[in-house]
Amino acid sequence: NGKAIWKSLQNYLPIFALFQSDRPSTDQDPEVQNPMKVAVEQALSQMEADLDAVTAQIQASAQATADRTLVKLKETYPELASVLTPKFKKPPWKNIFKLDLEADDGIPLNKRGSGVRRLVLLSFFQAEAQKRKDEAVVGGALARRVVYAIEEPETSQHPDNQIRIIEALKELAESGSQVILTTHVPGLAKLLPVDCIRHVTTDETTGDTSIEYGEEGVYEHVADALGVLPSPISSSEISLAILLEGKNDIDALKSLIKILVDAGNIDPLEDNKIFWVIGGGDNTLQDWIERKYLDKLNVHQIAIQDSDRSASAVPLSPEKTQWLHNMGQLANLTAFVTRKRNMDNYVHIAAVTRATGGQITFPAGTDEDFVRMPNVLSQQISTIGSQNLQFAATDLEGTPIQGYSASKCKRIIASFIIPQMTANEVLQRGEYFEGGETKNEILEWIEEIRTRTS
Questions:
Q1: CA distances for 191 relative to 183, 185, 225, angstroms
Q2: Dihedral angle over CA of 259, 243, 440, 258, nearest 10
Q3: Rounded CA separation 429/442 (Å)
Q4: pTM metric for this prediction
Q5: What is the per-residue pLDDT for 140?
Q6: How many CB atoms sit inside 10 A of residue 48's CB?
Q7: How far is Cα 278 from Cα 256, in angstroms, rounded to an integer?
């Protein structure tokens, strides 16, 4: 029964989809067809029970016909046969459905440029990630997992689109799928955490292939192979580099400081002496590269990393604890780990309601210190419906923020909602209690910055 067992196991195995970099330009271009083929496979996997019922019904009907035929055969020609059994082959359902895509200008999508076709893939990935998140929110059963193998996603793409593709792939991975991609572009590799990177090399003498992964030492080899090792730089004005995990974190911290300065709670900082850096220790290639550059600057560094704790009772992870210890051994660096989950959690819930014109109110009992704040905001907006929103989010430069996915809501919190907090709200969100004393985490960050720039 090995064959039957294998067919049953296949119902639980992930669906595999390969997106190649080198594509044939035909009417059945795989780059256009594959997203739809995956969609068909996923739909069929969710209807497996119904399809099996249809198959069983057809088999039963065919068997009944065979039985009736056998009765007549025995009556007339008893010497010919005693049994008639229909040999039924399960139909390849995924090959039955053929889908074509056509743009609104009447031009078939497979006649468009390679870059446009790849953006269809981007939208497909984003839609799948959002679908899985929506299913998780409503408590629905997760569909079969999908393994996406993507060869050089940067092909034929503008740099901005390359970043969007990586963000979409990250969301897809977070939603439960597995994503495998290849690249030779430092701009893409730098956006990935170290435990995601695999450096594949071939020994020129023996031809053997070796793979490095999962440790910081791989960064130097990747950086060397991609030609992104730092060169000496100098600055006579900069006296401090502040490293945070992303642009949104930088915007959030800058906004918190500005609110307190504008309200007269603190004196202005000497911002011209500060070098703001993305890569505060989140184990990315960019972080490794930036640290090397900063060493060349010969200035003090302040690194603030998210704790990623899910509740007050959850201790700091061993990895974060080790990072804090390692950073503490460096003479030119001061390291902080946020007491709340992420920088997003320093937003005040009252500011969320105020900035959204009262449309968004977080559910009662929301643990504002440790909940995934962008996810909650995204879910609330989804409940209302983006078309019904009466507020328009913009970033610090006044540019509209399009979309309301979790990653977009992270930007909305940092660049649109936090800047609208009051000084009292900022101070409230920075408070914590230790050793019987009331302290303020945000003010501690600011005091360290002031000390290093004065």
A1: 12, 11, 17
A2: -10
A3: 8
A4: 0.56
A5: 55
A6: 12
A7: 17
